[in-house]
Design a protein that fits this description.
- The protein is of the alpha+beta class and 185 residues long.
- The chain has 3 domains: 1-42; 47-119, SH3 type barrels (Roll); 122-180, SH3 type barrels (Roll), CATH 2.30.30.
- It has 1 helix and 15 strands, in the order H-E-E-E-E-E-E-E-E-E-E-E-E-E-E-E.
- Strands 1, 2, 5, 6, 7 and 8 form a 6-stranded mixed β-sheet that branches. A 5-stranded antiparallel β-sheet has the order 14-13-12-9-15, with no helix packed on it. A two-stranded antiparallel ribbon has the order 3-4.
- A hairpin with an 8-residue loop joins strand 10 (128-131) and strand 11.
- The mean pLDDT is 85.
Length: 185
């Protein structure tokens, strides 16, 4: 009876060692291959406690005087000063209530969400003709110069209906590829 119990005991120890070895083997496999497997699926995080809206997206300035900061907080120094209400910016990252934005000419910085609007505005990138209808054959209403701030009413495949307020109100169509802020650019 003692021999039988001793055999059972040694069998238990042997199986326990086998299970422990197998468990160690599985842990090593997991540690070796997990990092590589996860690195292929990880995307760069552009939002930390942000809005949940898609990034990048176009927004505009609410006020005629807005400060762009070098980091997400009032303690960061002012990097740039905007003096144009409605100026379009592209959001490229989010951190709490701060948005990292870029301008049409590549200036990057941070602006608080309370200073931004979802109003659709854009900038004319090169000389363009304002047309009465969305066609090259339509009547020309005005010639638009680069860096002109416009309000975008609606965009179709190749054309956008815009509104310009410069003493007088101009409404018409302009080619989409001449507007920064109308598309993913």
């Amino acid at each position: 009876m003692f021999k039988l119990n001793a055999i059972k005991f040694y069998m238990f120890i042997f199986i326990g060692k086998l299970n422990l070895s197998f468990l160690i083997f599985l842990i090593m496999i997991f540690l070796l291959f997990t990092e590589n497997a996860l690195s292929f699926t990880k995307e760069q995080k552009v939002s930390i406690n942000g809005s949940g809206l898609k990034i990048p997206r176009i927004v505009s300035l609410k006020n005629s005087l807005t400060y762009m900061r070098s980091g997400p907080g009032k303690e960061f120094p002012i990097k740039y000063e905007f003096k144009k209400k409605g100026y379009p910016l592209k959001i490229i990252a989010e951190y709490n209530n701060w948005r990292k934005v870029t301008t049409s000419n590549g200036i990057n910085g941070w602006i608080h969400t309370q200073l931004l609007s979802s109003s659709k505005t854009g900038l004319i990138t090169k000389s363009a003709l304002l047309k009465a209808i969305p066609s090259d054959s339509g009547n020309t209403l005005a010639k638009l110069l680069p860096n002109l701030l416009i309000n975008i009413q609606i965009c179709k495949k190749y054309w956008c209906k815009i509104k310009i307020v410069k003493g007088k109100i101009y409404v018409g169509w302009v080619k989409k590829n001449t507007i920064w802020g109308s598309t993913k650019n």
